[in-house]
Design goal:
This protein has 224 residues and is an alpha/beta fold. It has one domain: P-loop containing nucleotide triphosphate hydrolases (Rossmann fold, 3-Layer(aba) Sandwich), CATH 3.40.50. Helices cover 36% and strands 29% of the residues. The protein has 7 helices and 10 strands. The strands form 2 sheets. Strands 6-7-8-3-9-10 form a 6-stranded mixed sheet. Strands 2-1-4-5 form a 4-stranded antiparallel sheet, with helices on one face. Helix 3 runs parallel beside helix 5 and helix 5 runs parallel beside helix 6. The longest helix has 18 residues. The chain starts with a strand and ends with a strand. This is ABC transporter ATP-binding protein. Pfam families: ABC_tran.
Amino acid sequence: MNEAVVEIRDLRRSFTQGGVTIDVLRGVDLRIGKGEIVALLGPSGSGKSTMLQAVGLLEGGFEGSIRIGGKEAAQLDARGRTEMRREMLGFVYQFHHLLPDFNAQENVVLPQLIHGATRADADARAEKLLGALGLSQRLAHRPSQLSGGEQQRVAVARALATQPALVLADEPTGNLDEATADVVLAEFLRLVREEGSSALVATHNERLAKQMDRIVRLHEGHLE
């Protein structure tokens, strides 16, 4: 069996609003192998973002087991979870969240510097990733000077900059028109595969989900 990058068992998350308890995740189990790209399909409000926040160690209040790279996240303190997130994970969101005062290359360089890379190595990797996404001529452009598709390509390069074991993408093309979304998703999938990372991609778009290795559906708090 392919080595597991992440193993999730009996993941649960509830919220209380107005005195009413809402069970969003009701015992989710999922295993993602090394190099596997999994689509997390479900309508808006089904809990896809909640699940990605849990796997991404971005929010507490969850019950169950999340093992990333063989390590149990529940056994880590806040510092340990931060280190695991920095060492193991990359993130792509529906909105690019690029730093507006930094150009495309600098946005991809910064997480590498935080990760401990030298500036020279970070620059070289940023140029390589952005070049692979067709942005060699846009390295010095700030986000406001880039199109929506170009901004999201920079966000993809940033997510992969530190060579994460797992990339978590939450509706990564949801803010783009259909034609641009197709191109950006294709480039995202190609680059993830070339880098040897795994990915969990949340989407409500069945057509896009079919381009990935496997589809799991979130329905009433369970995976199907």
